[in-house]
Amino acid sequence: MRLKGWQEVLLEDLPKDSPVTPEVVEMTLKQGKRFRGSMRVSTGRIWTDDDYEKRRRKILATPLP
Q1: Which of 28, 33, 39, 52 gets the highest tally of CB atoms within 10 A of its CB?
Q2: Gap between the Cα atoms of 14 and 30, Å rounded
Q3: pLDDT for res 60
Q4: Does the pLDDT at position 61 exceed 80?
Q5: Residues 10-58: pLDDT tens digits?
Q6: Which residues contact 43 (CB under 8 A, 6 or more apart)?
Q7: Gap between the Cα atoms of 56 and 46, Å rounded
Q8: Domain boundaries along the sequence of the chain
Q9: How far is CA 48 from CA 27, 44, 53, 61, in A?
Q10: H runs (alpha helix) in 1-65
Q11: CA distance 47 to 20
């Protein structure tokens, strides 16, 4: 098996994240002690992809003064 050089590794695309669904949020709440770093994630205060898109569209539609 051939190892990739650092140039090849830098040019690779990162894997896509799985969608954040209500089930993922529920699982995060149940297993919150496993998550390190972000207090929002460990307490389950995360948005689903649908909620995020709704909020994003609302903000982008707001006219600037």
Answers
A1: 28
A2: 28
A3: 95
A4: yes
A5: 888 888 888 888 888 888 888 877 767 677 776 767 888 999 999 999 9
A6: 29, 32
A7: 14
A8: 19-61
A9: 13, 11, 9, 20
A10: 6-11, 22-30, 39-42, 49-61
A11: 7
